[in-house]
Design goal:
Elements: E1 3-8, H1 14-27, E2 32-36, H2 44-47, H3 53-62, E3 64-67, H4 81-88, E4 93-99, E5 112-118, E6 122-132, E7 136-142, H5 145-161, E8 166-171, H6 179-192, E9 198-203, H7 204-213, E10 220-223, H8 225-238, E11 248-250, E12 255-257, H9 276-288, H10 292-308, H11 328-339
Parallel strand pairs: 1-2, 1-3, 3-12, 5-10, 8-9, 8-10
Antiparallel strand pairs: 4-5, 4-11, 6-7, 11-12
Bound molecules: nicotinamide-adenine-dinucleotide (NAD).
The site of nicotinamide-adenine-dinucleotide (NAD) has 17 residues, from loops.
C-alpha cells in the first residue's frame, strides 16, 4: 500500500531540497503517492495568496505532509505561511531534535537534545498593530492554560515513549509574571503527573548560556513559541547547524514535517545547500507513519555519509569554500547509495 502524502516543495531552496528528500524516501522501498501542492512567494501571482486553500485541504485529507521552507517577507508583506499552516491545522507541537553526529565540524559530541516548542500562541498569535505609525507599535502575547497543558503533556509523553529522563521548562517568569508565570505554574502541575520523568525549569537567558556551556546536561526542553524558535536554532548550532536540523509539527490528527531552517534564498537554484535537514524530517515522518525500520535506515545512511565526510555539502566541510564540497543532489545520491 502506498502512503498518500502532501508534498509542499516551498520556495527559495525548497524545491531542490524537496526533490532530494523525495528520492531518498522512495529509495527506502516504502511506497508513496505524492500529492504535490504549491505554496509560497512564487505562487502569489498565480493564486493571489501564498497559501491557496487547496494546500490546507490536501493536508486535512492526507493527514501527513512533507514541506520545504517558505519565505516570509521581513518587516512588511504577507504573514508567514509556515505559521499559518501550523495554526490553521492546530499542529500544536513543534518537535525539533538536535543530535550530534560524528564527522560534523564544530559539533559538540554527545549532545542529544529535543526542543518541544508550543506552536499556536505566544507572540506568534499575530496580534500586533501600530499605536502611532512610525513611532510606536504593540504586540500582544497570549499564553493559555489549555495550550500550555497540552504542550507540556506532549513533552512528557514524548520523553516517556522515547526513553528520555528529564524535561526542562524554559520561561521568563521573573519578568513576564502573568504570561510566563502561567506557563511555569501549569508546567509544574503537569510534571507532578509524571513522577518517572525528572522536571526542572530554567529562565531563558540562563538556558541559552547553559546550552552553550553544558549542553549534555539537558534532554527534552519545553518552550513557549518564541523561545522555542530561538532556542531550537541555538541547539541546531551546537550539532552542526541548520543543514542537519529536522522538525515536525504535530497535532492530534495530522502532522507536517519540515526542516528547522528557512528558504536560504541566496542559495536558491544553485544545488548547494544541505539536504540532510529535510531528509531527516522525512525520517521523522516515516516514524510517524509507523515505518520505523525505514526511518532508522535513512538516519543511519545520513550519519554514515556525514561520518565519511566525502560526499557532503559546503556547510559540513572544514571551510565554507572547500573545493571538495558536493551539491544537494550529489549528497542525496550518496545517502541513497548508503541505504543499500
Ligand atoms: P535560513 O534558515 O533560510 O538561512 C540562514 C542561513 O543558514 C543560510 O544563509 C545558510 O547559511 C544556512 N542554511 C539554512 N539552511 C541550510 C541548508 N539546508 N544547508 C546549508 N546551510 C543552510 O534563515 P533566514 O535567512 O533567516 O530566512 C530566510 C527565509 O526563510 C525568511 O523569509 C524566513 O522567514 C524563512 N523561514 C522559513 C522557515 C520555514 O519555512 N519553516 C523557517 C525559518 C525561516
Amino acid at each position: 500500500m502506498a502512503y498518500r502524502v502532501t508534498l509542499i516543495p516551498g520556495d527559495g531552496t525548497g524545491p531542490e531540497l524537496a526533490a532530494a528528500a523525495r528520492r531518498v524516501l522512495e529509495a527506502t522501498g516504502v511506497q508513496f503517492e505524492w500529492d504535490v501542492q504549491e505554496a509560497g512567494a512564487d505562487v502569489m501571482g498565480k493564486y493571489g495568496t501564498p497559501l491557496p486553500d487547496a494546500v490546507l485541504d490536501s493536508i486535512r485529507a492526507n493527514k501527513v505532509a512533507l514541506k520545504g521552507p517558505i519565505t516570509t517577507p521581513v518587516g512588511t508583506g504577507f504573514r508567514s505561511v509556515n505559521v499559518a499552516i501550523r495554526k490553521a491545522l492546530d499542529l500544536y507541537a513543534n518537535l525539533r531534535p538536535a543530535r550530534a553526529m560524528a564527522g560534523i565540524p564544530n559539533c559538540h559530541a554527545g549532545v542529544d537534545l529535543v526542543v518541544v516548542r508550543e506552536n499556536t500562541e505566544c507572540l506568534y498569535a499575530g496580534i500586533e498593530h501600530d499605536v502611532i505609525p512610525g513611532e510606536a507599535a504593540e504586540s500582544i502575547r497570549i499564553i493559555t492554560r489549555r495550550a500550555t497543558e497540552r504542550i507540556v503533556r506532549f513533552a512528557f509523553d514524548y520523553a516517556r515513549a522515547n526513553g528520555r529522563h528529564k524535561v526542562t521548562a524554559v520561561h521568563k517568569a521573573n519578568i513576564l509574571k502573568a504570561t510566563d508565570g502561567l506557563f511555569l505554574r501549569v508546567a509544574r502541575e503537569v510534571a507532578e503527573r509524571y513522577p518517572d520523568i525528572a522536571f526542572e525549569d530554567r529562565i531563558v537567558d540562563n538556558m541559552c548560556m547553559q546550552l552553550v556551556q553544558r549542553p549534555r546536561e539537558y534532554d527534552v526542553l519545553v518552550c513557549p513559541n518564541l523561545y522555542g524558535d530561538i532556542v531550537s536554532d541555538l541547539c541546531s548550532g551546537l550539532v552542526g547547524g541548520l543543514g542537519v536540523a529536522p522538525g515536525a509539527n504535530i497535532g492530534a490528527e495530522m502532522a507536517v514535517f519540515e526542516p528547522v531552517h528557512g528558504s536560504a534564498p541566496k542559495y536558491a537554484g544553485q544545488n548547494r545547500v544541505n539536504p540532510c535537514a529535510i531528509i531527516l524530517s522525512g525520517a521523522l515522518m516515516l516514524r510517524y507513519l509507523g515505518e520505523v525500520e525505514a526511518a532508522a535506515r535513512v538516519e543511519a545512511a545520513v550519519a554514515a555519509v556525514i561520518a565519511e565526510g566525502r560526499a557532503v555539502t559546503y556547510d559540513l566541510k572544514p571551510t565554507r569554500d572547500d573545493p571538495g564540497a558536493v551539491g544537494t543532489q550529489e549528497m542525496a545520491d550518496a545517502i541513497i547509495a548508503a541505504l543499500k
